[in-house]
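Tokens help. One example:
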Amino acid sequence: MSIRYTERLAEAGIEPSVASVGDPYDNALAETINGLYKTELVHRQGPWRNMQDLEMATLGSVDWFNNRRLLGPIGNIPPAEAEDNFYAQRDVLDMVA
């Protein structure tokens, strides 16, 4: 499957976005988020009675992570607020131009 996938990407002129063997950098962010999810939610708050309970807890965790978590490097505001501020500033600059 991997060979056919690589060949199909080459036919389409697409460069694969995967790291070389032993190179951890391509998936570092995804691995970090997955590890945080498993450590902070799945293992710490489990065991879970059923999949629905885990799914609901996951939704709550994602909501907290994006909308209520205060992130120091961006001024102790939630990521969603920082994103809103970014687009509001960009819209103002577009109107000025």
The radius of gyration is 20 Å. The CA atoms of residues 7 and 76 lie 46 Å apart. Residues 47-96 form one domain.
